[in-house]
Amino acid sequence: MRKLLIALLCTTVLSGTACNRGPEWHAPGETGDAAKVELTGPANGAKDVPTSAEIGFTLVGAAQASVALVDAGGAQVDGAMRADNSSWVPGTQLKYGTQYTATITATKSDGGTAEAKTTFTTMAQPANLVGVHSFVGDDQVLGVALPIVITFERDIPEKSRAEVQRRLFVRSDPVQEGSWNWISPNEVHYRTKDHWQPGTKLDVRVATGGLPLGSTEFVGKHDITVKASIGPETTFEVDNASKRMTVKQSGQVVRTIPVSLGKPSAPSSSGNLVIISRNPTELFDSSTYGVPVNAPGGYQTTIQWPMRLTWQGEYIHAAPWSVADQGKRNVSHGCVNIATDQAKFVYDLAKVGDPVIVKGTERHVAWGDGWTDWDIPWTEYVKGSAIPYEPSATISPSGS
To answer: Strand (E) positions, 23-111?
Structure first.
């Protein structure tokens, strides 16, 4: 997993709230090398604190610390330290317009302790909340090439992306190295250096509820949590030269299928693609990409077993009309045509997130036309992170 490199020196706050360094707190009667807690935010007495607030502090002369956060009624909020120990992250979004007290207790190796407290009040719920969405949900079994895809309903200014990214937490079992990449101003992906290991358990928290998104007028609408898993390794390799699709499970060939790809005027995209969606049927309509249904080359028909590869409309799907061409010549509008029984076999085997490698066509897939996260080298991918990347496999906090 990525290592969070920029310590949170002060929790981001809205206008009117100070981010001053708090006092140093000493255990009663102790001096010199006594344990100390230096509070960095929110400041004691602070108002209008975002509901995404974290408890920031540093330790002097102490081996460890614990944090207790309670609201005015005494209800406790669970949480966890960041991997870099820069702050303590509440496990859920704080409530709007609510007073909280955080108590940090530091302990020295010899048993000596020190304590610091801060009481602050969160902001009232703002009017302009921005929706945040995850492409996958709970309990899904997904493919080894799955990128975690998060979208925002408005563009995130470049200067604010690091702060947003620090609130995106990915935990996996087993732990695997990965990085975020801002595909566009309103979409960020997370992929691992290598494909996910089959059987991996995923725990994702998008902790954007109440987080300022580059302006005091716009904050995240809510947190998102996703618990999912990675299924068996299944790959689909499509070769234009042989007009064949090779289906593999756990590296072993299970079937070779004749295909017909895009004709010369509408070639299929080569590259490292990923299955984005799969449905029993979909209505395909040429007018969605500018060709009227009643024009030459136009169509509107229900397709069986479609599995999407690109946003421009390339799929693997059943094509009974081109069976005579499959394995011999390319006649499709860019899709991977296969026979109906073969399409049902592939559909039953495939998962969202399975890799599809297409080779030897007349054009290469454009970056961002589908989940193209695996179509560039890892050394290039990490450059899309808003936080300087350092190789690591640390676990980010879930707060649970």
So the answer is: 24-26, 36-41, 55-60, 64-71, 76-77, 79-81, 87-90, 99-107
From the candidate CATH numbers 2.40.50.140, 2.60.40.3710, 2.120.10.30, 2.60.120.260, the one assigned to the domain spanning 129-231:
2.60.40.3710
Three-class SS state of 111:
coil
Active site residue 317: yes
Q: 92: which 2 tokens?
A: 């859920």
CATH class label, 24-121:
mainly beta
Would you state the structure tokens that stand for residue 158, as one six-digit string?
Answer: 């470049």
| CATH 2.60.40.3780 domain extents, the chain | 24-121
Catalytic pick among 26, 189, 195, 335: 335
**Positions of CATH 2.60.40.3710 in the chain:** 129-231
- The continuous run of DSSP H or E covering 257 comes out as strand 252-258
First to last CA, the chain: 18
Which residues are registered as beta bridge partners of 171?
203
> Is pLDDT larger for residue 115 or for residue 112?
115
Active-site option among 189, 195, 317, 333: 317
Pinpoint the residues of the chain covered by CATH 2.40.440.10. Answer: 234-361
Q: How far is CA 56 from CA 20, 43, 121, 214, 242, in A?
A: 11, 10, 16, 21, 59
∠ CA 346-352-355, nearest 5°, is 70
**234-361 architecture in CATH?**
Beta Barrel (2.40)
Does residue 333 carry a catalytic annotation?
no
Q: Is 163 helix (H, G, I), strand (E, B) or coil?
A: helix
pLDDT digits (tens, 9 = 90+) for 305-363: 999 999 999 999 999 999 999 999 999 999 999 999 999 999 999 999 999 999 999 99
Output the pTM of the full model. Answer: 0.86
